[in-house]
Amino acid sequence: MSLSKILLITKLKTTNIGNQALSDEVIKLYERTPENLHVAGRPEGLFGFSIEKLKKSEDALRTFEAWATSIVDILKPSMHTVVFVPVTRKVELLSFNDFKVRNDKWYQRIKDVFRKYVHSDALFAKAYKKRFLTVAAADSIVYSGAGEVGDNNIFLRQLLELRIAQKIGKKTYAINQSVEVVESPMRQICGFVYKQLDEIIVRGHMSRDNLVSLGVPLARIKCFPDSAFLNQTPSLEAREALRNRYNILKPAVGINATKVADDINAWEEIIKLLKKLGYNLYFISNDPVSDKVLGEHFAARHGLIPILEFINYPEYSALLSNFSFVISCRLHTNELALTGSTPVIPIEGRHFKTKEVFNLVNYPIPVTNTGSSNWPDEIKQQIETLHSKNNDVNHFIQDLDSIRKLSLENCFDS
Questions:
Q1: Which one of 60, 85, 157, 340 has the fewest beta carbons within 10 angstroms of its own beta carbon?
Q2: Which domain does 22 fall in, by range?
Q3: Strands 199-202 and 171-177
Q4: What span, in angstroms and rounded, lies between the C-alpha atoms of 105 and 99?
Q5: Residue 127 pLDDT class (50, 70, 90 cuts)
Q6: Based on the domain organization, do 248 and 206 belong to the same domain?
Q7: CB 271: neighbour CB atoms within 10 A?
Q8: Angle (deg, nearest 10), helices 331-339 and 17-30
Q9: Average pLDDT of the residues of the chain
Q10: Whole-angstrom Cα distance, residue 185 to residue 92?
């Protein structure tokens, strides 16, 4: 399918290395026709709309539709002035020292107060006008999700923008996402907007089935791995550079734990086994802000060496390539390890997104769910399997280009 003037919406500022990989790789896909591409981040100017306001309304779906109609009615007269301007961007990877990261709690509190007490369609439309004109200048809107497709205000505002685009006659698409919407009214609103998308690419069958349950036609949904798999295998020089930078002593194993697997006692027996087998242990994460405290606990309690720095995703993949294997709760640490030719023991981080991705690509090691009472035993069994090197993972890694070929389907302009 060939699209003409494309507005590609993806996360452009993040503290998450995985989001950087997802966004930068999908931007590369659409840059094949740079003269027809405008890359933009999340919607600006729609901060006044919230799930809280929908819950207070008598009919959440009718209220949501009224929001979209009101913005279109106010701004549509300005559409005759629009000119499509090609723009391409790369993701800005934020660090601990970034002002917004350091002051995020206060920033969110101020926005929450504003959303709670202020509602003016005219004011919101004025704030959104510049972005609206960008939407109006495009023929097709392609929304690339990056972890926010769930019950939150960020996704609500993206749904509102997609609905605005539909109302002014634009083709709309969604790619690169797991759909983890579970609560009302977001389920109804997601279903309402998504069933009017022209095509949707999700990361697995669980998201597909979730969308079908929301009334989205099955024929419009396709399942392909996300674009982070397109990261290229790091060179030997890059691997050595990262090994030397962080003084990684081999044999080594990288471990990532998140809040869903923060039982330090449960990890103790896993770590004992790894040390018994002779591995040096490192705590790693593609989301250093979220995992910093837990990483420090692992260092203090179990002696893991924490590597919690903001390096770009090709470097992170090169770092992971120095480990014999990686045990991780984070989807993109797992994906970027595989692109670095490193086997992984995947643990479900939230809902089902890791499971659906790894089931889709037929990864030979099952995803562990920490909701199971015997999950540490499952991890230990997988450690023994990888340590013995008597497994199918190396064959999977050698055939990773077949996964990359599937990931290319996230580009409609081909």
A1: 85
A2: 6-223
A3: parallel
A4: 11
A5: confident
A6: no
A7: 20
A8: 60
A9: 92
A10: 32
